[in-house]
Structure formats: C-alpha cells, structure tokens
Automatic annotation (TrEMBL):
InterPro entries: Papain-like_cys_pep_sf, Peptidase_C19_UCH, Ucp6/RUP1. PANTHER family: UBA DOMAIN-CONTAINING PROTEIN RUP1 (PTHR39597). GO terms for cellular component: cytosol; nucleus. Pfam families: UCH (PF00443). Residues 1-24, 348-390, 435-456 are annotated as: Disordered. Residues 457-643 form the Peptidase C19 ubiquitin carboxyl-terminal hydrolase domain. One of its GO terms (biological process) is protein deubiquitination. GO terms for molecular function: cysteine-type deubiquitinase activity. This is Peptidase C19 ubiquitin carboxyl-terminal hydrolase domain-containing protein. Signal peptide: none annotated.
Length: 701
C-alpha cells in the first residue's frame, strides 16, 4: 500500500473538495448519459435515441425510464417531451456564448485522481445485478445456436471422419495370427473369413443365410449331385456342393473360424472395387445365391404341398384402385426376394397429401411405385419436398409400396403369396451416396459435404407383413386413412404448441416468468402508486401465463391420447397374422477393409444375438442391434436386413440332417482339433475340382 506524507495527503483532500472544471464536468455528464442510454436501450430493446429521450425526461433515473419504456409511457407524454426539447434548444441558443466549446485539435485531458486508499471499496452502489430469467436472444449470442456457417459444418464433419479414420488405421490389420484360431466356445457361432478382404462382403452373406433357420432346414434336404459317384466339377452343382459343405461345418464344427478359399470362388463372388457400394454388391450376390438355391429346391420338389411356401421367392403384383369401382390388376404377377428401402431420401410429407389420402402414401406423377421385387428403382415422389413422417422400416415400406393420387385413386404393390424369408436392402439417399463407397476417397469426399447425416432407419425385431398382402388391401387402406386423419390432427396441435412455447425462437413461457420476476422482485417501488402499478402488471402477466400453460397442458394431453390411438390402429388382430422375426443385420461403417463391415446374427434356439467382425465373435444385446449408430456420419450404416417367418415350436425343433459325407469330414476335423493338432482349417475341396474350375463356365442365372 502506498503511504502518503501529511503534506501530500492534505493536498489530495483539498483536490477532492474542489469542484471539477466546467469542461470536465460537461464531458463526464455526457459520457455517463451516453452509457446509461446504451444500457437502457439494451435492457428494453428500444432504439438509442428513444431511450436517451426517455432518460432525460426522468432526469437520469434509470428505473423510472425503464418502467416508462416497458409501460409505453412515451406515448402519453409525447407533447410534453416535444415542448421540453424546444425549451432546451432555446436555452442553448440564448446562452451559447457562456459555454464555449474547447478546441477540437487540443482536447483537454481531465485530471484523474487515483484513490489508493480503498476506503470506498465497500460503499453501496445503485447498480444491482441479478441472474436473468429471460431466454437468450440469438441476435446477441457470440456464437449463433444454429449456424448456417458452411465452414463450421465442414470442420465438424472433418473432425468426425478423421476420428473414424484414426480408429480404422489403429484397428485394421488383415493378418490373422495362429493364436487367433482355437476351439469354439459353447454356442458361439463360427466366423467365416474370406481369403481376400475384397470378398468379405460375400462371406457375411453366406454367414447370415446360415443363421436363418428355414434356410438351414431346406438346404439340408437337397440331394447332392454326383457324377459316377464323384463330386460335381461344374456349376451350379459345384457351388451348391460347396455351400452345403460349409453349412455343415458352421453347424457342427468345433473350431472358432473357417478360412474360405473355394466357396466364394465356386459362387464366383466378384471382388469389391474401390468405387463399388457394399449394399448393391451384397444384393447382387445374395440374389445369385438365393435364385440358384430356390431353383434347385423347385427342381427337387423339396417344397411340396398347398400349405408350403417357397423359401426365398414371393409372388407380387400391382393393383390399381380407382376412386369409384373395383380394384384392377395393372400388371402380371412376378417373383421377388430383395426389397429396396430408401432412407434419408425425400418422400412426400403429410402436408403434401390431400385430406383423403392416407399419410403413408406419397402421391407420384404416374401413380406407380414399382419398388417391390428384386430391388428395382421406384418413384419416391417429388424430390423437392421433405418427409416428416416416422423414419422406420414399416412406414418406409408403406411409402414405397403404396401411392395415392389427388383424385382418390391409388396404386399398390401387393404380395400375393409370401415367402419364408425376405431381405431388405437399405439404400442411402443420393445426397449422401458420396460417403458410401468403400475406398479411402470417402474421407476426402466427405470434407466438402455440407449435408447432415441421414436419420437412422428404425427397424423392428418383429415385422408384420399383413398390411402388404393382397388379401388385406381393403383393411390396410382403411387403417392408413384413419392414420392419416390422426396424424394431420397431431400436426395441427403440434404446430399450435410450437407457437405457444417458442414464438420466433424464444422461450415464450420463460420470458413471461422473467417479466413477472422483474415486476415482483426487481423493479424499484418508491410510492404506493408505483406499487399498485407493479402489482397490476404482474397480475396481468400471471393470468396470461396461467392461460398459456393450461392450453399447453391440454395440447399435451390431446397429443398423448392421439398417439395412443395411433399406436393402436395397427394392433388389429387381423393385421397380426404374419409375423416375421429379424434374423440378421449387415452393417457398413463407411470405411474400407474387413472391419469396415460386420454382421449381427440371431441364434434361433436361444434368441442370443452375436456380432461378427472379421474373425471375432462377441455376444451383444438386441437393443444394440436395433440402435447401432455405426457409419451414420459417413452416410453408411445397416445395409441389409434378413427376416424370416416366425416358426412354431414344432417347426423350430425340426432336426437338420446334413449329408453323411460332409458330417464325416467335419467330425474328423473336430477330432484333430481336440487332439491338439492344428488342422488345415480351409474346407477341403474334392480332388479334381480345382483343375476343372478353370474350364468350368458358371451359369447361375
């Protein structure tokens, strides 16, 4: 602390008692008035000139000026204010010679007196600070809450993808160590590993098909084709032979992983190129396998009887329902297996449908939506409109397979005879397709992207196919119409609620509570009249707040009631007769390599879910399967879903008997494993097949 001599202290006290020079006093008053005017304008939202005028009217009293601005007092005193301004102007003009302005070129520097004693540090001040109860104003934020700054979005996307790339480079290794192979633990599935990383997608398809119980049961009934007692040398018999042999090994084998070199070669699985999409390549390979197996099942008449459904192929047709009259078929029936489902796309929204059109049916220009079957590209409505319906598998299927015209007519893709198994290819919208390639160019391509990742598709553990069957057309249309009415009513209520609680992006209710807090606890009260005014304003605001809160509660209750009604529309027992259970999910992280794709498969005996990444198999929960977010930030994610019809206990308990020739080979391999001798873990190929492979033309069409 600085110690002053008695003489210096006396001079300091004398200087403090002397009045400020005239020019310094005028400058001090002008600066203070400007600061108070700025603060008043910021608090009340008024412009600076208006705030300064009201402040002068109240002789610099901030509380009175603020109340006057908030209560609209300026309107009542406009005439008096103008008269006062005229009087001030006349005084300045008459006595201007008594107040000469200092030269602008040499402004006087005020004599600043620095108080080093600190005696007045604890002196009370008139400024009071309180925690605000007002919602933040986006215009005054340092960083906008929802910026449309392209650079910021690019930087965030770059950081996310660089983090994913770092994880990929840290974990990706195509080498498999000898100690990675061992005994199969309990009921843990056996992993199937392709000989090269570019065929890993095909190995996942074979692995997923094996874990569908109907596939194992039907394929095990196929008779092997032998040529003079020897294994087949040409396709498709060679491919079927290798498939059944691998299924046998995956079922009763004791080793934890099989390294395949011949199975995928027999099926002529193409290697995945740098620019190829995993989902599309998987669809093509899956159709090749299923078409060949289904053709062989038909040839051997394994699926006989009027009640027996085909394993893979379902029959479907297109039906047009006019506004008046009977439905009519617009094309012949066809067969299909893989159904394309687009996510992150631009389907027509609820608001784009007419009042008579069900909510799930987007109107198209030609009234046709040909996407049922082998994944043909369909019409998804006007590309310039966004969807605001639920992004789940059932809703997307309904949008894809049903289209409604404004004239009241509709066109439907209907299943006439269902199959035991159905596959869904999840196709990411074109706006995100640049992220779905398997090459490392994904990382560079994503840096310039400005679109947010698509909303993840929600798919159920059990899918009821009844609403898509030909026999349920009328009932399904009635239910969709009722659903459309409910959704439109919910949309109106939700819009009204948004206006009440968030007008122009502000927290309306929060601002009202903040204003009430100000009138009751912050505003100065220096007279009975002032107290009466404050109480009256607070009471009015409380009445408004209570009315708005009551309306919001009523809307919430109505929305909850409508949601229950909406959930119950599809609980009709007549639409719950054909349940299909989820059996396998294939996922792409958006990154290249073996570990960039993996699968979830369900053990039909225990209901346990298993995740297979390369040769590693781990147990996971069903919730993880249904909500895995991997790959979404790169426009990837789940790309293939396999469902199969729910089996009865008798059907599920049907024994699977594999050909003895394959059972013996696998048992011998198991014995070698148990004896501690490391076997050649590739599935052996019959003698002569390898040489014949070069000249064998594979025709799986």
């Amino acid at each position: 602390m600085v110690q002053l001599t008695p003489e210096a202290a006396a001079r300091h006290d004398e200087a403090e008692r002397q009045p400020l020079p005239l020019q310094e006093a005028k400058a001090w008053m002008s600066n203070k008035e400007r600061e108070d005017g700025n603060m008043l304008a910021e608090i009340t939202g008024a412009d600076f000139d208006r705030a300064l005028r009201i402040l002068r009217r109240h002789d610099g009293d901030m509380d009175k000026a603020a109340n006057s601005l908030l209560n609209g007092g300026e309107v009542e005193e406009t005439a008096a204010d103008r008269a006062r301004e005229r009087e001030l102007a006349e005084v300045k003009e008459s006595f201007a010679h008594l107040f000469p302005d200092p030269p602008k070129s040499k402004p006087e520097t005020p004599n600043v007196v620095i108080d080093l004693t600190g005696d007045d540090d604890d002196a009370p001040t008139t400024t009071r600070f309180r925690a605000t109860t007002r919602s933040p104003d986006p215009a005054w934020q340092m960083t906008i809450a929802t910026p449309n700054n392209k650079k910021s979005e690019e930087e965030q996307l770059k950081e996310v993808m660089e983090a994913s790339w770092a994880d990929f480079t840290a974990d990706e290794s195509d080498e498999m160590r000898p100690e990675d192979t061992g005994l199969r633990e309990g009921g843990r599935p056996i992993a199937l590993r392709a000989d090269v990383p570019t065929k890993a997608y095909a190995a996942l398809i074979i692995h997923a098909l094996f874990h569908v119980p109907q596939v194992r049961q039907r394929v095990s009934k196929l008779h092997l084709h032998l040529i003079d007692g020897a294994p087949p040398l040409v396709n498709p018999d060679w491919a079927l032979w290798a498939l059944i042999e691998m299924f046998t090994a995956l079922d009763i084998g004791r080793i934890n992983v099989y390294l395949d070199e011949e199975l995928l070669t027999a099926w002529e699985a193409p290697q995945l190129g740098a620019g190829d999409e995993v989902g599309r390549a998987s669809k093509v390979f899956l159709e090749r396998v299923t078409n060949t197996v289904q053709k062989e099942l038909d040839a051997q008449q394994v699926e006989v009887g009027s009640t027996t459904t085909k394993l893979f192929h379902f029959t479907h047709c297109s039906v047009h329902v006019p506004a008046t009259g009977s439905p009519e078929r617009v094309d012949e029936q066809d067969v299909g297996f893989v159904v394309e489902v687009q996510v992150g796309g631009t389907h027509n929204s609820i608001a784009n449908n007419t009042d008579s059109a069900p909510v799930c049916g987007p109107a198209t220009k030609d009234g046709v939506n040909p996407t049922l079957g082998n994944g043909a590209n369909g019409t998804h409505g006007d590309s310039g409109k966004s969807s605001n319906v639920a992004n789940d598998l059932t809703t997307r299927l309904s949008q894809t397979l049903n289209s409604y015209a404004p004239d009241g007519s509709s066109t439907h893709q209907l299943i006439q005879r269902a199959s035991e198994v159905v596959a869904f290819e999840i196709v990411v919208a074109p706006s995100f397709s640049s992220f779905s390639n398997t090459s490392t160019s994904n990382i560079d391509a994503g840096k310039s992207g400005n679109a947010a990742p698509p909303e993840p598709l929600a798919f159920p553990a059990t899918l009821h196919m009844d609403q898509f069957l030909d026999a349920n057309l009328d009932l399904a249309n009635e239910t969709r119409a009722a659903e459309g009415v409910v959704r439109r009513e919910m949309g109106v209520l939700a819009s009204r609620r948004r206006v009440l609680v968030g007008f122009e992006g502000q927290d309306t209710l929060g601002n009202l509570r903040g204003a009430i807090e100000y009138y009751e606890h912050v505003a100065a009260c220096d007279s009975p009249e002032r107290l009466t005014t404050l109480r009256r304003m607070a009471g009015k605001l409380r009445n408004v707040l209570a009315k708005m809160e009551g309306e919001v509660r009523e809307i919430d209750a109505k929305l909850a009631s409508l949601q229950r009604e909406l959930d119950g529309l599809w609980e009709n027992p007549e639409l719950k007769c054909h349940p299909y259970d989820l059996r396998a999910v294939l996922v792409h992280t958006g990154l290249p390599g073996r570990k960039g794709i993996y699968s979830y498969v369900r053990d039909s005996a225990t209901g346990t879910w298993w995740k297979t990444v390369d040769y590693t198999v781990t147990e996971v929960s069903e919730d993880q399967v249904l909500t895995d977010p991997a790959g979404l930030h790169l426009g990837a994610g789940p790309y293939m879903l396999l469902y199969s019809r729910r089996q009865s206990e008798a059907e599920a308990g049907e024994p699977v008997q594999w050909p003895p020739i394959f059972v013996d080979r696998v048992e011998n391999n198991n014995a070698m494993v148990l004896e501690g001798v490391r076997p050649q873990i590739e599935i052996p190929v019959p003698v002569g097949v390898g040489a014949a492979r070069e000249g064998a033309a594979m025709d799986l069409s």
